[in-house]
Write a structure and sequence with these properties.
Elements: H1 2-36, H2 46-78, H3 86-106
Helix pairs in contact: 2-3
Length: 108
Amino acid sequence: MRRLTTWLQILVLAACVAVLASQVLVSAQDQDKQEEDVLLRNGKSQKEEILKAEHKLNLEDSRRLVEVAQGLKAEFEKHDQRVLSVNAIRNTEEIEKLAKRIRGRLQR
């Protein structure tokens, strides 16, 4: 019974050390994040300005993506099932390009 109590104490101590170590890591990461935020000359956060610019680009690209997709749909409706136009292939390539750009900005 005494051995079990000793092992439980060691286990609890190890758990406390692990929690303390994780808290130290989290606080260190928070400090790094706070230090990374650079202010511009106008006093605004550089990260916020980058996010706003990327949001604007995402809106423009998504509008263009919808236009191209609608054009592709009209192209498919206009032609027979056996006809594949070069314009349809170009539209699909542009759709892929726009989607990759949007995804790349969202993953940052």
